[in-house]
Amino acid sequence: xxxxxxxxxxxxxxxxxxxxxxxxxxxxxxxxxxxxxxxxxxxxxxxxxxxxxxxxxxxxxxxxxxxxxxxxxxxxxxxxxxxxxxxxxxxxxxxxxxxxxxxxxxxxxxxxxxxxxxxxxxxxxxxxxxxxxxxxxxxxxxxxxxxxxxx
Length: 151
Hints:
Blueprint: H1 8-14, H2 17-49, H3 56-80, H4 84-105, H5 113-133, H6 136-141
């Protein structure tokens, strides 16, 4: 992951109260997503242990999503330290993940309804993060780089 920080002028934009509040909310959203993903994994373990059928898809998804939560949280921390690349990754993942996860879960026969609903609940904090990372505070803190003509 990128560890570079903003230049002095860009750091001023990142250190505004609005940007810090937005980054804090984004970090909290990802933490909540991680907790919900861990609960989903525990639920799959519990359902399986009670003798109900749990398919391979459910096992793999339930095991991977808490790991993904940790990785996204680390990216969010890097973004809060000024990494534009980490910010762009969080911003992109927060948009794509809910669409992909819910979309796959809605394919008939992939998973039971209870599992799909659980995954939708897990994605709600990620949807919140998608909105926050597209808000004006973080757009100002991470402005699009301007292209400079080559000499």
